[in-house]
Amino acid sequence: MLLMLALRVAQAAPPAPASASSSSAAPAQPVHPQVEMKTSMGDFVIELFPDKAPKTVANFLQYVKSGFYDGTVFHRVIPGYLIQGGLYTRELRPKRTLPPIPDEANNGLSNLRGTVAAARGPDPDSATSQFFINVVDNPRLDYVGNQSGMTWGYAVFGKVVKGMDVVDKIDNLPTGPQGPFIGDVPRPLVVIQSAKLIGEAAHPTAEPESPVTGQAPASTPATKKNKPGGGH
User: Fold this and answer.
1) Nearest Cα residue to 198 out of 56, 73, 35, 85
2) Contact (CB, 8 A) for 45 and 34
3) Does 165 have pLDDT greater than 50?
4) Cβ neighbours of 147 (radius 10 Å)
5) Predicted TM-score (pTM) of this structure
6) pLDDT at position 151, please?
7) How many angstroms separate the CA atoms of 170 and 163, rounded?
């Protein structure tokens, strides 16, 4: 009788609660979209930072998804500085773009080696389709203040996470005048054959951070190199 009573009590007892380790899933890491660019010099992958530069990333992805970049070229190469493209055709004619977007340079990201930033003209809010890739650390291109277009800086919105050797190969090409440009055009022209969204990164790369000290004002060039412009 005692044995049967014990069995009934055991059967009626509620199941033990699951442990905290099994009931709570680990917090999901943020994920970033990635874009693969296939060029005539090789391929590279850009990871985007929509949490830091939402308008710039959305603008860039509009161009990617529409196929705008397919057949455009890297028309500007300054060795040891940057490579720039995203507007001109093989004939060095500009394509029609979407309206310009607000500048997001004041987002805490620095123009370090491998980062991708929006090219623009003297007006900070003039960026459209053009972008540039820093081949060295260029903190002087970072946001310093809103006094003028010179101090506003250039909005970093992504980073090359694969194929930086291809970017370096492009950076090492000889350059000269061609078409409407008096210089800096690579020979041969580097064609973007395709730019496609390849999904989101499972393990995002750490976002670059602006240096707290030792940052030269953007209006004080360390060399005679020209700054990224919307027109060239």
Assistant:
1) 35
2) yes
3) yes
4) 10
5) 0.78
6) 74
7) 11
pLDDT tens for 170-194 read 999 999 999 999 999 999 999 999 9
**Max Cα distance, the chain (Å):** 103
Lowest mean pLDDT among 11-15, 82-86, 149-153, 214-218: 214-218
Q: CA 118 from chain center: how many Å?
A: 8
Q: Which two tokens stand for residue 202?
A: 């499972």
Reported as type and span, the H/E element at residue 5 is: helix 2-12
Going 132 to 136 to 137 to 138, the CA torsion angle's sign is negative
Average pLDDT value over all residues in the chain: 81
Please say whether the beta carbons of 125 and 149 come within 8 A: no
Gap between the Cα atoms of 178 and 185, Å rounded = 6
CB atoms within 10 A of CB 205: 15
Q: What are the distances in angstroms from CA 52 to CA 56, 109, 156?
A: 9, 8, 9
Q: For residue 63, give the 3-state DSSP assignment.
A: helix
Three-state secondary structure call for residue 167:
helix
N-term to C-term CA, the chain: 94
> What per-residue confidence (pLDDT) applies to 207?
55
**Residue listed under structure tokens 């710039």:** 56
Amino acid, res. 144: V
- At residue 41, what are phi and psi to the nearest 5 degrees? -110, 0
Sign of CA dihedral 166, 138, 112, 228: negative
Q: Which is nearest to 40 in space by CA: 191, 182, 184, 156? A: 191
Domains observed in the chain: 30-200 (2.40.100.10)
pLDDT at 10 (0 to 100): 40
